[in-house]
UniProtKB/TrEMBL annotation:
The chain crosses the membrane at residues 20-42, 63-84, 90-108, 120-137, 157-175, 187-204, 224-240, 260-283, 326-346. InterPro entries: Glycosyl_transferase_4. It is a multi-pass membrane protein. Keywords: Membrane, Transferase, Transmembrane, Transmembrane helix. It is found in: Membrane. This is Phospho-N-acetylmuramoyl-pentapeptide-transferase. Its main location: membrane. PANTHER family: PHOSPHO-N-ACETYLMURAMOYL-PENTAPEPTIDE-TRANSFERASE (PTHR22926), PHOSPHO-N-ACETYLMURAMOYL-PENTAPEPTIDE-TRANSFERASE HOMOLOG (PTHR22926:SF5). It comes from Devosia neptuniae. It comes from the Bacteria.
């Protein structure tokens, strides 16, 4: 909307041209979404269901009675701001719709006594992941690049869908499994989204840098970088209230769409392995538990039996870390590792 406003006003007032600049739109959008989250969430979370505690979770009683499902408002704020800031992009609009659906499913899981079944959630996540991959492929061939090699190759759209759908599904569930300690899932995810935004704008979405780094250029990437800035702003506004001890919880209504957004950004980068470089700690903390349970149920294999997952539960129970220690130490590890891994991703080729 703002880009069209710029076209109308710029002939009469030159500075209005800035409203067509992606960096300006990203800054304005992030600031607006953060402000809305910061100010509006406390005014609306009283209508949400209250947390009843999670079975087998460490210190689950500390969350009992707090509003849960705040993530649905985070997503609504993000979508609303993006409709204002984004140039017209049908593919991205469909993906924003998928974010709303993922958040709605998450809120149903938050509000229903006992939550939705694992099968229901798994199949719903798979359907949403499949839908966004079909939208992003858009019936066209897709160029894939991989780490540690300068080669890249072209896949037909249906192969791209088959390749990326499990990646998006993994992102949804890994981020969801990170939720459980005040601030951890939101903080780690927001930093991951920031780094993805950096890659999308300065690497994949910049024709000169992409050519220099031998990475396929994607003109759609800059719009996704703008979306990343706005979503990150909305999460940061929420984190003000989620700092230990938290006043409210985003629940599955927030963690699932955040994971979905991370997965969609990975698809836009053109490299399915990107998730392992930008979300290494998210995957270790959350997805390792998924792999552990899957191996035990499918093959009877018991691995890492002495370690509790999500790993944040292990360090709280076995190492007696406080919630604040988990948050700060995980963030330090995440920040220190992610930039090294990203440099390896784009430079060692």
């Amino acid at each position: 909307m703002l880009t069209y406003l710029s076209e109308f006003i710029a002939p009469f007032w030159g500075p209005a041209r800035l409203l067509a600049s992606y960096p300006v739109l990203a800054a304005l959008g992030a600031l607006l979404s953060a402000t809305l989250s910061l100010l509006m969430l406390p005014r609306v979370w009283h209508v949400l269901t209250k947390d009843k505690g999670r079975a087998h979770a460490v210190n689950a009683e500390e969350s009992v009675g707090k509003p849960v499902g705040v993530g649905i408002f985070i997503v609504l704020i993000t979508v609303g701001v993006l409709l204002i800031c984004l140039p017209f992009d049908p593919k991205l609009y469909f993906c924003l719709g998928a974010l709303l659906i993922a958040s709605g499913v998450g809120y149903l899981d938050d509000s229903k006594p006992g939550g939705l079944s694992e099968l229901t959630l798994g199949l719903t996540d798979l359907a949403i992941a499949l839908f966004v991959c079909v939208v992003l492929m858009n019936g066209a061939n897709t160029e894939i690049w991989l780490p540690f090699t300068s080669a890249h190759f072209t896949l037909p759209w249906w192969s791209g869908v088959l390749l990326y759908t499990p990646v998006v599904w993994l992102c949804i569930n890994a981020v969801n499994c990170n939720d459980g300690v005040d601030g951890v899932s939101g903080t780690l995810s927001s930093f991951t989204i920031c780094v993805l935004g950096f890659l999308l704008y300065f690497v994949v979405g910049d024709v000169t840098n992409a050519k220099y780094l031998l990475i396929p250029y994607n003109p759609d990437a800059v719009s996704w970088a703008l979306a990343a800035a706005v979503f990150c702003g909305a999460i940061l506004g929420y984190l003000w209230h989620n700092a230990p001890p938290s006043a409210a919880l985003m629940g599955d209504a927030g963690s699932r769409p955040i994971g979905l957004f991370v997965g969609m950004c990975v698809v836009v980068t053109g490299n399915p392995a990107t998730v392992f470089f930008v979300g290494a700690l998210l995957l270790f903390n959350g997805a390792t538990g998924l792999a552990k349970v899957a191996l035990m149920r499918l093959f009877g294999w018991r691995i890492l039996g002495s370690i509790r997952f999500p790993f944040h539960d292990h360090v709280r129970k076995n190492l007696h870390w406080s919630n604040a220690q988990v948050l700060l130490r995980f963030l330090l590890i995440h920040v220190a590792s992610i930039w090294l891994l990203v440099i390896l991703l784009i430079k060692v080729r």
